[in-house]
Structures are given as C-alpha cells and as structure tokens.
Amino acid sequence: MARLALSDCRGLTPLRARSRGSAIALPSPPHLAAGPRRPAAAAIHRDWALRVAAPTRLASVFEEDKRGLGGAEEAGGSSAGFNPGAPPPFGLAEIRAAIPKHCWVKDPWRSMSYVLRDVLVVLGLAAAAARADSWLVWPLYWAAQGTMFWALFVLGHDCGHGSFSSNPKLNSVVGHILHSSILVPYNGWRISHRTHHQNHGHVEKDESWHPLPQRLYNSLDNMTKKLRFSMPFPMLAFPLYLFARSPGKEGSHFNPNSDLFQPNEKKDVLTSTASWLAMIGVLAGLTFVMGPLKILKLYAIPYVIFVMWLDFVTYLHHHGHEDKVPWYRGKEWSYLRGGLTTLDRDYGLINNIHHDIGTHVIHHLFPQIPHYHLVEATEAAKPVLGKYYKEPEKSAPLPFHLLQVLSRSLKEDHYVSDTGDIVYYQSESETSTCAQSSD
C-alpha cells in the first residue's frame, strides 16, 4: 500500500525505505482526536524539576485510525510498517518509568573525577608536546588535545543542564571554568542550549542546526550557501554562531540584550562574557611570554579541532537519518515528538572520551540524567521506544563512516517547505526535478 507523508514538490514526499528492508508507514490521520491526557504527568513534571531544559507540558498521545490504516498497533511494528513521524503510542511518563531510579542520581564526586581525569590528560598532553617539540608529534597532539577540549565542553554542557550535580553553585563554577578555558561563554551558551532542548524539532523555534524555510534559503547568496552546505565550512561554524547565531536569527551569546535572553538573565550573561574575556587575557599573556607560534601549536590548532568535533557531533545528532524524519510546526509539534527525531551515534573509541554524548535521544528527553547513566538508561528505555529508536551504526574503532553520513546530509538537507505543520528536508536538486516534472 503506497502511503505518502509530505512531498518534495509540495511538501508531500514518500518516505524512503531503509535498505535493511523495513517498510515505512503513515502516521494515523492528524485530524483524529488525541487520547486523554495522563493525570500523572503533572506530578512527574514536578518530580523532574528540570529547570534548565524541561518541557512545559507532558502528554501521552494516542491516535486511532478508524479506517483501519494506522494507529498504535501499526506504529508498534505491524506488517504495514512504521513512520518515525507518527505520534507515538506512549508518553514521557512511560519512558521515565522504564529507566531505573539510580540512573537519575547525580554523584558530584563521580562527576568531579571525570573533570580531574580530563584536566590531567589535557595538561599532560600539553607538557609532553612542548617537551618533544617535534613536527612528528605535533599533528598527533593536535588531534588528541582537540578531542580533549571537546570532552571538557561536554562536562561543561552537563553543568548547564544540572546533570553534573544537584548543587547549582558547583555547576556554575565548574561550568564557567571548563567552558571559559575553551572560549565558550558558559551562561550565554547554556541558555541558548536550553532553548534548543525545549523546542527541538520545531522549524521556527529550534535554536541549533534548525532547518531553513525555502523562502529564506532562496534569499541566501551563493557564498552563504557554500559556507553552510559545503565541507569543511559547516564544521567551523560554532564561533560564528556564538557571535551572530544562524541565518534568520539575530543576536549574540555575549550580548545580554540579545533576543536569546530574558531581562533577568542579564547578570548571568555578563558574568560568562567577563569570564570569556578573562581567558582571552590569559591567552594574550601567554602569547607574550611564550611567543605566538608556541600558543598556536599548543592551543589555537587544538581549539579548531575542538570546534570541528562540536559541529560534527551536534549536526549528526539531528541530521543524516537513513529515512527522512520530520520537522514540525504548530499543533503537530510536541516536546516528545521533537525529541524522538534526534539520533544516537556510535563514535567507537571516542564514546568514553567524550562521555557518551552519542546516546542523544534519552539525553534530549531527560537532560538531567548524568552522562555516566545514559547508556544504561537508553537500554532500559528501548522496549518502550520500540521502532521510534534507531540503533546507531557501530563504529570500530573510529567514526570515519560518519563523514559519509555528514557529506550526504549536507547535499540533501537544505531547506523545508514554507508551509505545512509536518515538513521534511529538501534539496535544490529535488526541487529542480519537481519543477521539470510539472512542466
């Protein structure tokens, strides 16, 4: 049975079947009434106390197809197939209940042990490279140290979510030190990342790597398009994003008057901007004492590698699915449906180094789970998620195959339709084909 979910020509396109053989089915018709809201949701929300990245409402959505063409049974894996964009037959409460209670426990001593581990590795690598001072060693150092800078970022990211510890002051102090050391404004980025979590999957409201509406895409000049969609430029976007955000959005992570922030967050933004400037001062002093070439080799090049890791990982957590996954507008969007469009990725040997941030689906739904419990929490939640969870392709030992995924996505995922509450990425080549067909 041929079923359509939004085309490349008019916002309705057939979902592409996976090569492994599973078919794709349509969600239950959106005009049918949703099932009753679960009364326990409000209590669960209070228990979470997700101050940083919580959904404002929790709901379990059930839809029945009265014509016998969909519904919860089909979404769960009937012979008719599965559509990842269908409203799931479960809610956040069911997922949370499946995760062991100890996975929610934050151990500040354990969290600090990871900080100590990473800082010692960073200092050890720098000392060893400076002592060797050999062009045979420097490339290895840059790759290793850039990866460790990325690991420091992930720990600071955990501080921003409150998953590092239950002590806000400890989270703030550690987060400022870690993020400032790699030139990230802690509070500025923390707040914008909160916006990303609260609105992921929403075309207009998402903050990180969100899709461009076709009208905005068409307004970009060729150079901007090349910088956004041609390697390696997208992997160097993070510093520009901090200063100017993404196309279609204005503001700066350093400016307390930016649209990113609420008036009561001005002091937080000024604090993180001051910390960022202090690190700039430290680097300037070290450059004066040690010389610019030494700082270039010890810090600047690893910083660029770190930026590439950050853009690489964050992009792939939200793009490059084997099948096109939806983006939402209006009433079709929900916190749960948006979170379920994220992707887990396997980074091989890097998984432990960057604190299992590849286990991204559960992290997006429940960002206060500490990183050292994410793998266990994900395994426990899989029976509930069912086909709404896509197993990551195994990477051994390094994730070079993900470079192919990235390249394909940059070629295919350009923009979404200007209209429609469920839309899918399209590319210029697809639009051209549609235009030729209509002629």
Summarize the structure.
By secondary structure, this protein is an all-alpha fold. The protein has helices at residues 41-48, 72-75, 92-98, 108-132, 138-161, 168-181, 186-199, 214-219, 222-229, 238-244, 266-290, 292-316, 335-339, 350-353, 360-365, 374-385, 401-412, 428-438; strands spanning 212-213, 327-328, 415-416, 422-423.
**Major sheet:** 2 strands, parallel
Instruction: Note the run of SSEs as H and E.
Output: HHHHHHHEHHHHHEHHHHHEEH
Distance between the termini: 28 Å
- What is the number of E strands? 4
The low-confidence parts are 1-80, 435-439
Classify the helix fraction into a percent range: 40-55%
DSSP strand (E) fraction?
under 5%
Instruction: Give the overall silhouette.
Output: globular
Mean pLDDT: 83
Walk me through what this model shows:
- With 439 residues, the protein is mainly alpha-helical.
- It has one domain (107-439).
- 49% of the residues lie in helices and 2% in strands.
- The chain contains 18 helices and four strands.
- α4 runs antiparallel to α5 and α5 crosses α7.
- The relative contact order is 0.15.
Topology at a glance:
Blueprint: H1 41-48, H2 72-75, H3 92-98, H4 108-132, H5 138-161, H6 168-181, H7 186-199, E1 212-213, H8 214-219, H9 222-229, H10 238-244, H11 266-290, H12 292-316, E2 327-328, H13 335-339, H14 350-353, H15 360-365, H16 374-385, H17 401-412, E3 415-416, E4 422-423, H18 428-438
Parallel strand pairs: 1-3
Antiparallel strand pairs: 2-4
